[in-house]
Amino acid sequence: MSRTHHTDPDPRFPFPHTSSPTRCRTRPELFDLGLGDLSGATKKAAQERLEQARRACSACPVVTACLRWALVNETTENVFASTTPTQRRVLRRRLADRLGPDWVDVLAARDQARRERAKAARHTPLPVPQARIVHLDRELNGPLRPLLRLTAEEQCLNRSRLEAGLKAA
Ligand code: SF4
């Protein structure tokens, strides 16, 4: 599928990566608005394709990042993140009204600030009560087993052990 946009891609907003191919890669024809006339004789088939593309996008794990990419990069064709080019033009105007004419820079600065906050949070020690709970939990239950889904009974048991441990501490 062609990803037409007016300007060079903005490196601050790369197209989102997924571990498995998205529907727009496996069925690009669904997303191609150039294939049918939404107002003419083939209207029904074209509308049905558009609906299928929209449904695929709503279940897509990268829909939010895809929409940002499509807005920032001024894509002028095809469906991206459930939106048509006309809808994206409206969204761009709204963003410009809300954030000003340099809304792309504003979004990029917000993203950068968010990444910095997340990085700082990873290096901030836990507050004392939380650290105490984590420590007690490790003592009582051993290290966390990765990706383990606890049953309701196990969760209950863990909770009562933890509460008993906290009372005793
Ligand atoms: S949200 Fe974007 S990446 Fe996901 S299927 Fe739709 S167009 Fe493709």
What report would you give on this structure?
It contains eight helices and no strands. With 169 residues, the protein is mainly α. The chain folds into two domains: 93 residues, no CATH class; 44 residues, no CATH class. The chain is elongated and about 75 Å long. The site of iron/sulfur cluster has 11 residues, from α1, α3 and α4.
**Which distinct ligands sit in these coordinates?**
iron/sulfur cluster
Number of beta-strand segments = 0
**Structural class, judged by helices and strands?**
mainly alpha
Helix count?
A: 8
- Residue fraction in strands: under 5%
Gyration radius over CA: 24 Å
- What is the 3D shape? elongated
Q: Which residues sit in consecutive blocks of at least 5 with pLDDT less than 50?
A: 1-5
Number of domains: 2
Distance between the termini: 62 Å
Helix content: 55-70%
Largest sheet: none
Average pLDDT taken over every residue: 84
User: What's the helix-strand series?
Assistant: HHHHHHHH
Primary descriptors:
mainly alpha; 2 domains; elongated; binds iron/sulfur cluster; 169 residues
What is the structure about, briefly put?
Helix content is 59%, strand content 0%. It is built from eight helices and no strands. Residues 1-5 have low confidence and may be disordered.
Summarize the topology.
Layout (H helix, E strand, L loop, with lengths): L22 H4 L1 H4 L11 H16 L4 H10 L12 H15 L3 H20 L5 H14 L10 H17 L1
Helix pairs in contact: 7-8
Iron/sulfur cluster binds next to α1, α3 and α4.
